[in-house]
Amino acid sequence: MTQITDHLADIRRRIDTALQRSQDAGRSVTIVGVSKLKPASAVAAAATAGLTHFAENYAHEGLEKIAAVANPALHWHFIGRIQANKTQPIARGFSWVQTIDRTRIAARLDAQRPDELGPLNVLIQLNVDREPQKAGAAPDELLPLAESVAKLSRLKLRGVMGMPPAGSSPAQNRRSFLVIAEAAETLRRSGFDVDTVSMGMSGDFELAIECGSSMVRLGTALFGPRARG
Question: For the whole model, what pTM was predicted?
Answer without folding.
Answer: 0.95
